[in-house]
Amino acid sequence: MEQQKQVALELEEVNMYVLFARMFAHIAREVEEACGEKGIEALRAGVRSFGEERGRNIAARAAAQGHEADAEHYLSCYDMGRSGYFHSRDTVSKGRVEQEFDRCVFAETWMRDGCQRWGIHYCEIIDPAIAKGYHPDMECIHDQHFFRDGRCHFVFQMNQKEAENDD
């Protein structure tokens, strides 16, 4: 049986997304085993810091292209290209972006490997952190999740104060 698993791994297409997901799960598992809940809190803080930095970089990309860091330019200036490993239906309108994912290689990898327990720490933190780094008045609502719902649904929206200032 172990030999069959090894052959399957050798034949499996390996890409950076799968490797990232597996690396994250390994790190999270080790941090939890060594440090318990305090370690998981630190891991989540690291994901938050990483996400906020990505968001600031996305805002800088928007500025370099002559755009405001607003909802309308969030996806067009995003820092991670979409490949066939992710699939979403996106709706962009003034002050709001809605995304419904029916494919996410990160979630697929964690579910296939039985690592949802650790992957969830990335999933719950990363997108709200990116949104906050992109614009402090952008919020991310992540109300459906692959591990629970079989898909992810996000709404990124500028808070009410920001929307009123745009009118």
Features:
single chain; 4 strands
Detailed description of the structure:
The chain has helices spanning 2-11, 16-64, 71-74, 105-112, 116-134, 146-149, 160-166; strands at residues 86-93, 96-104, 138-144, 152-158. It is α+β, with helices and mostly antiparallel strands and 167 residues long. β1 and β2 form a beta hairpin.
Instruction: Quickly count the helices.
Output: 7
Mean pLDDT: 91
Largest sheet composition: 4 strands, antiparallel
Give the uncertain stretches in residue-range form. Answer: none
Strand content: 15-25%
Order of strands across the widest beta sheet?
1-2-4-3
Q: By helix and strand content, what is the structural category?
A: alpha+beta
Q: How many beta-strand elements?
A: 4
Distance between the termini: 64 Å
Radius of gyration: 18 Å
Give the proportion of residues in helices: 55-70%
SSE ordering: HHHEEHHEHEH
Indicate the overall shape.
globular
List the helices and strands and how they pair.
Elements: H1 2-11, H2 16-64, H3 71-74, E1 86-93, E2 96-104, H4 105-112, H5 116-134, E3 138-144, H6 146-149, E4 152-158, H7 160-166
Antiparallel strand pairs: 1-2, 2-4, 3-4
In short:
The model has no long low-confidence stretch (mean pLDDT 91).
